[in-house]
Amino acid sequence: MIALPKQVCTELVRIALAEDLGAGDITSELTIAKEATGTGRFISKASGVICGWTIVKEVFQQLNPGIFLDIYHPDGSTVAAGDLLAVISGPVKDLLGGERVALNFLQHLSGIASYTRKLVDLITDFPQVRVVDTRKTIPGLRIFQKYAVRIGGGYNHRFNLADAVLIKDNHLLACGGVQTAIKKVRAAIPHTMKIEVEVESEEQVREALKAGADIIMLDNMSPDLMTKMVKLINQQAIVEASGNITAENIRTIAACGVDIISVGSLTHSVQVLDISLKLTTD
Predict the structure, then answer these.
(1) Does 29 lie in the same domain as 14?
(2) Does 1 reside within a domain?
(3) Does the active-site annotation cover 118?
(4) Within a domain: residue 197?
(5) 210 is catalytic
(6) How many CA atoms lie within 13 A of 95 on its CB side?
C-alpha cells in the first residue's frame, strides 16, 4: 500500500490548523483549565471504509507531541455504525484545538475510500477492470484524495499534467485532429511514455488506432457504441471508459469489455463518512 509523504502531511496540516485556529481557540481558553486532561473516542456513525489516520496523527502531534492516539480500525478497515475507531488522550485544550481539522480530513477521506470500495465491489466479477480516479480533486488535497482511492481498492490516474500524455478534446481542436496530435507527441516524448487520447466517435477511434495510440479513452459513449469500439480496438490499445460513471451504471460499463473506468465523482462530490469525536474529562 502506498504511504503519504511525511513532508506533505506536515505542510498541509499546518495550513489547515492555521486556518481553523486563527489567533487561538478563544472559547477553550476562557472555559477550560490549562491542566485539564481528557480522553476522546472516535466513533463511526455509518458503515464504510476508514482512511486518514496518518493525517489525524499529524494534526494532534503538531498541537502537542504528548497526545496519545490508539487506533482500533486502521486505514482500509470496514466499519459499521457505532464502531469505536480509536481513542485519543491528552490536554483537553489541544484535543479540542485539533478536533475539527482531524475530523474534516478523516470524514472526507473515509468517504472517498468508502465510495471507491462500493464501486470496486460492484464489479468484482470483472477482474480485468480497474476503477481509477481523475484530476477532479480539491486544490491542494489531491495527494490525500488519491491516497484514499487506493485505500478503497481503486487505482490512480495521473497526478498532474506532467505525469503522462492525455490528448483531450480541446487539444484536438487546437492542433487539428487525432493523428496530427499523436504524431507531434510521439516525435517528442521519451520511449518510456505512453500516449492516451480521448475520443467521442468511431471515426476518432479509427484515427487513434492508425496513429498508434497506447490508450484510448471512450468519452461519454453509449454502452452499445462502447461495446462496438472495444471490439474494433481488439486489444490494440488499452481501453478506458469515462464520463458520468455512477454506482447505477458501472456494471453496464464494465460489461462493455473496457480495461479502465475513470470516475470523477470519487473525489469531486463524494459524501463524507459520518464520524464523531466524543470527549470525557479526567
Answers:
(1) yes
(2) no
(3) no
(4) yes
(5) no
(6) 24
* Domain contains 145: yes
Q: How far, in Å, CA of 10 to CA of 159, rounded? A: 20
| Catalytic entry in 58, 83, 207, 219 | 219
Q: What is the pLDDT of residues 160-210, one digit of tens each?
A: 999 999 999 999 989 989 999 999 999 999 999 999 999 999 999 999 999
- At residue 166, the 3 state secondary structure works out as strand
104 and 182, same domain (yes or no): no
Q: Looking at the 3D structure of the chain, how many domains does it have?
A: 2
Are residues 26 and 139 both part of a single domain? Answer: no
Q: Is the pTM of this model over 0.85?
A: yes
183 counts as catalytic = no
For residue 48, what are the domain limits? 6-120+270-281
Q: CB-side exposure of 74: number of CA atoms within 13 Å?
A: 2
Q: Looking at the structure, tell me whether residues 167 and 258 fall in a common domain.
A: yes
Question: Are residue 263 and residue 127 in the same domain, yes or no?
Answer: yes
Which residue is catalytic, options 75, 198, 240, 259? Answer: 198
What is the rounded distance in angstroms from the CA atom of residue 263 to the CA atom of residue 275? 25
Distances (CA, A) of 229 to 161, 167, 204, 241: 27, 18, 10, 11
pLDDT for 214-228, tens place per residue? 999 999 999 999 999
Question: From the candidates 142, 158, 168, 206, which is the catalytic residue?
Answer: 168
> Is 150 noted as a catalytic residue in this protein?
no
